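Researcher: Re-running this chain for the archive, since the previous output was lost when a drive failed. Same request as before.
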Amino acid sequence: MSFASHQSSPFPNSVCDFMSVRRYSKRTIKSYLYWVKYFIIFQKKRHPETMGPIEVEQFLTYLAVTRNVSASTQKIALNALAFLYNRVFEQPLGDLGEFNRAKTPGKLPVVLNRLEMTQILSNMAGTSQLIASLLYGSGLRRNEAVRLRVKDIDFGYLQLQIWNGKGNYHRLTTLAPELVSKLSLQIEQVRLYLQADSQCQFLIPASNTTGQHG
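Model: Regenerated structure tokens:
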């Protein structure tokens, strides 16, 4: 069975719907669909339901040997295809051991010390500085910081509620006491902006929908 372009096929949409109703994050859905489509194209647009472990191993080997992807990238591709077969098709792939695994680099990640981080933050200001401070002080990821809402901040217990983080998990994390005043100021500024916008709506005259006649 050939697999036509995803624009004319309902299959990608069905996978998207399957993940959406199970409350997977949009980022995870987008990533998994990318690797599923890539797999289909690599296998000459055959429908994935007509394939199995052998074709998956071929694709994973191609990523490691020909595309030279990182171990983490290959693992994401594997997770996407394992989800497709295990959960969507209910046809478990079983033990995949016959593919070349991407090599994990041996170097350690570079970590800034406290002085270096202080110097970086001192050269920032406003919202950008606040977000960077949350990343450093509370261990938030970028998407988690920009999605943070007022209701998720507990000033009394100095903690933040993170919803749908990595792996679609919820968690609590600490709030640095030094950020309380900055967050409070940010909340107050946004409240004033919303109040001003609300007042402006009453000042703008309604458009004249009556036609002009000569």
